UniProtKB/TrEMBL annotation:
Taxon lineage: Eukaryota, Metazoa, Chordata, Craniata, Vertebrata
Role noted for this protein: O-methyltransferase that specifically monomethylates 5'-monophosphate of cytoplasmic histidyl tRNA (tRNA(His)), acting as a capping enzyme by protecting tRNA(His) from cleavage by DICER1. Also able, with less efficiently, to methylate the 5' monophosphate of a subset of pre-miRNAs, acting as a negative regulator of miRNA processing. The 5' monophosphate of pre-miRNAs is recognized by DICER1 and is required for pre-miRNAs processing: methylation at this position reduces the processing of pre-miRNAs by DICER1.
GO molecular function terms listed in the Swiss-Prot or TrEMBL record: O-methyltransferase activity; RNA methyltransferase activity
Protein's name according to its UniProt entry: RNA methyltransferase
Originating organism: Lates japonicus
GO cellular component: cytoplasm
Enzyme Commission code: 2.1.1.-
Amino acid sequence: MATCPINSDSVEEINDPGAAPYGNFINYYTFNPPENRLSLIPATLLQDLGYSDGHQTTLILDVGCNSGDLSVAFYRHLVQEPVCGGESDRFKVHLLGFDLDEALIQRAQQTNPLPSSISFIPLDITTDADQLQDYLNQHGCSCFHLCLCLAVTMWVHLNHGDSGLLGLLSRLASISQYLLLEAQPWKCYRSAARRLRKLGRSDFDHFKTLKIRGDIAEHARKHLERDCGMELMQSFGSTAWDRKLLLFRRRRD
């Protein structure tokens, strides 16, 4: 789930499937398959949120989509699209997935089975979100109806610090009606730092100076509710990796 800039020094690490300082694992879905999340999310989620009108365009954003496996599986899960067959016209649902790693995005584009409904673009949301606004304008929408931010927060946090994490959450809240968040717990931060040291590299630039520690999901909830005009709507439980799936919605005045 790459969300930070990649430079030439990182090539060796990326080629090692067990090491990815930006979250851009080349084999991510072999050890965390889409079913780990989808088993917790009801297939009726869009209808439950009020997006069941066949004449209404519904937009989904997948942040840090990696090679797109989860994006496609999530789309099919929600619109009940069979694995074999044409694209569903039950809802006008479009999904945009983005990742910083251009190689992963190229793989996603090449293997995309639903190109008229699902799109993939390379994008670093920490520096530029213009393409997201362009996509919204293209579909005549002011915001994404549902945003997925799954296993992304830690990588932004480690590489951009506390301000980077809070900035990401604020930006996603500003362009989303609903936000489905899976924040990695603190133990994952320690594991990521250990993997980096095993490669003979120094710690993440911000790891030792982070003030936001402990229950990261709770810190995220407080920021979204206090500073971003969102409220926790539902928890879908925890994944097999003990990560909470939390659904937030824009607060209604």
